[in-house]
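Subgroup meeting minutes
Present: P.N., E.W., G.H.
Scribe: E.W.

1. P.N. recapped why we're keeping a running log of single-chain structure predictions: easier to compare across weeks, and new members can see raw inputs and outputs side by side.
2. G.H. added today's entry (203 aa).
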Amino acid sequence: MDRKEHWNGVYQSRDSAELSWYEPEPGVSLQLIEAAGLGPEARILDVGGGTSTLIDCLLQRGYRHLGLLDVSPTSIEICRARLGERAVDVEWLVQDVTTFRSSHPWDLWHDRAVFHFLTDKHDQLAYSDALLSAITTGGQVVIATFGPQGPLKCSGLDVCRYDARSLQARLRGDFELLNEQVVDHTTPAGTTQQFLYCRFRRK
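Output recorded in log:
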C-alpha cells in the first residue's frame, strides 16, 4: 500500500479526535512557531498537517501566508470544510513530501510527526532535499518526531526514533539547533508517547 492510500484510509475510517496524535490545540508547535519571531507576513508551511488545527490557530493569530502539505486529499478536504470561508486564505498542497518542490520559498517549515514515518534512507534524503529546496536561508524548521523512548510503530507502520543530534544529522543541511524539548503526549486512548520537538535555523 502506498502512502497516499494508507493515509486516505486512516482519515476515511476514523474521526480525527480518535487518532493517536490528536491534540485539541497544538500547544508546543504554536510556542515554537511564536519563538521564531516571525511577523504576520511570514510564509509558514505545515508539512503533513493532516487534520491538525494548527492552520486554524495560526489564522486566528493573524498569520496571512499559510500552506498545508499532505499526501492525503481526504485530510485536506476535512481541513478545508472545517475552515469554511477561511479556507481561501490557505495554500492547499496535495503531494508526497518526498517529491515536493515548492513554487516559492517558505520562512518556516513545520512538521509534527511526518519525518519519523520515513524509515527508508532514500525517503529521508528526499525529504531533506524537499526541505532544502523550500526553506529560505535564515528560515526556521520546527519538527517533531518520536523521541528515544517513543513507540516503534504508529498507525500500523514502523517509525524511527530520534534525539536532537541524530535528527539534526538527518536533515543534512547547515542547520543550527535553537531549541529542543522532550514532551510526553497523551493519546485519546490514554497511553503516552514520547515526542522530541526541535527548532532549527538554516544558516
